[in-house]
What does this fold into?
Amino acid sequence: MLILKAANSGDKNYKSTTRDVRKLVDSLKNIDKVDAIVMDLRGNGGGSLVEAISLTGLFIDKGPVVQVKDLRGKIEVDEDQTSGVAWDGPFGVMIDRLSASASEIFAGAIQDYGRGIVMGSQSYGKGTVQSSIDLNKLVNPGMLQKIAGLVTRDKTIGTSPSTANPADINLGQINLTMAKFYRVAGSSTQHKGVTPDIVFPSLYPMDKIGEDTEPSALPWDVIPSSNFKAVANLTAIKAGLIKNSEQRIANSLDFKYVKQDIAELKKRDAEVSVTLNENKLKAERDAQEAKSLTRQNELRALRGLPAIKKGEKVTKQDAFDFIEDESLKVMGDFMQQSGNYVMNLGVATAPKL
It folds into this structure.
């Protein structure tokens, strides 16, 4: 909200995701001399619609970015109106279950335009527009003063409605859904979110996190496509990318452990009882810690790192992002299948939109 206020007030130095990402892209392009860029939107809950549109404009030329349908059924098409792009080379976008709202608008537009490859797991599915209404402003001031009098009478002997302070009463606010977001091809981001071109096992429980897990969530639907022109059709290339990625994931110890954790989590969720025996609980905890340490050292050995002991902290330099690693390998395949030789890849992590 502070960012929007600063932008609307004419502050030229307001914090801008688009401005920050443009600097990152310029650095990757001109200093690091990368051949491809991957945008990391994992865990990015989104934010400003204006930023989502301008950020998309860094990778596509002029054209529609998102459609908005209000409660009366009126459809508005929001476009990037800036000519030119900051990056026209091979491009990828990483998303996960926590990518939502403006992040989904960006990823959906990149996918619809055929501008790049979207990788990860199905996004959150937050495709609605809310408006907050202050309930205090809906109540007659005289009535609010009477309510204040009733509330304070028990706390202060002799207080009457005429002397009560309405400022002491906060009725809260209510959020009303006023509109829905739709991709340029007409599909809503609500409920279904964005499905990646290359799907990875999710680190988050898909049946517990996401709009489609909410019983009262608005459904997914479709409206007519906007007047946009795709820059490429990547359908033929995607099949090969999926095959190669699935083979790597099947042979990956990191992904093997992720799948085991997912299966174990589902098993625990199905349990209806838990032991209260302290010794048994301690034994289970110790076994889990030993298992985790064994896994960690197996993975470290694969990367040529020394084993660690129980309680020993891992440095940031030792951290390995296997999701990012697989995404970069997908981009390498993408460039090779597109007739380009991959030499260098860059990752730009977008701040909260």
